[in-house]
């Protein structure tokens, strides 16, 4: 199996579709007394927090970083709703995308680069293949010509350690795992390669799809998305 990094093509773009949307609930960033303020990227549109009462309301409105104690209180309320391969981190986003859209969308859209949306026909074709670890959630976009679905990419793939340069240390107070930079010609770690056909590289906003996924959406016509192969080692 080959794997490809998905990102918006440089353009000019064929499709006029644009959207402006946010996930319904957002865990705030954390202000750690030891390592400072930070938040990670990661969106889990399949997670429904509407049953968390007052916390759901807080998560709809909070955008500034919270103290460690406050962050932990909020994170503890979210934790029971997550699957084992969904990560609980400051800045985590949950629930469907909500916002506005205009224009016509291609089979797959990757703008902004950490979000992957597919059209209705692409959803049907992907489900027909019975891909592994594929989670598609209807995006609630006002003004869009057709229903779009966000692809949830869980952080289950890892970059090979030779492709990674540490940029900040881990923190034993708040649990920050430590930052790193990916080299330009980075590779996937074969030892941790997940069975999923869509996933995110742990610790980054990089989305990776399998060749099965890429082939299905390519059959539906051109998209403004570039799939660049990522070697496995
Ligand atoms: Zn810390």
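Q: What amino acid sequence fits the structure above?
A:
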């Amino acid at each position: 199996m080959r794997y490809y990094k998905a990102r918006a093509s440089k353009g000019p773009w064929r499709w006029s579709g644009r959207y402006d949307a946010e996930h319904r609930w957002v865990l705030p960033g954390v202000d750690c007394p030891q390592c400072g303020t930070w938040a990670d990227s990661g969106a889990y549109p399949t997670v429904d927090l509407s049953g968390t009462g007052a916390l759901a309301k807080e998560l709809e409105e909070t955008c500034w970083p919270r103290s460690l104690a406050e962050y932990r209180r909020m994170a503890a309320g979210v934790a029971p709703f997550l699957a084992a391969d969904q990560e609980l981190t400051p800045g985590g986003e949950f629930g469907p995308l909500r916002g506005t859209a205009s224009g016509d969308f291609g089979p797959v859209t990757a703008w902004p680069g950490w979000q992957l949306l597919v059209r209705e026909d692409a959803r049907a074709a992907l489900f027909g293949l019975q891909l592994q670890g594929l989670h598609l959630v209807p995006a609630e976009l006002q003004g869009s010509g057709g229903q779009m679905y966000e692809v949830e990419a869980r952080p289950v793939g890892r970059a090979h350690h030779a492709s990674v340069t540490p940029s900040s240390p881990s923190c034993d107070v708040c649990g920050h795992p430590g930052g790193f930079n990916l080299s330009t010609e980075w590779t996937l770690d074969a030892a941790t390669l997940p069975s999923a056909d869509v996933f995110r590289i742990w610790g980054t906003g990089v989305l990776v799809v399998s060749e099965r996924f890429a082939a299905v959406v390519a059959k539906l016509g051109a998209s403004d998305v570039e799939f660049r192969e990522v070697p496995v080692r």
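Q: And what stands out in the fold?
A: The chain has four helices and 17 strands.
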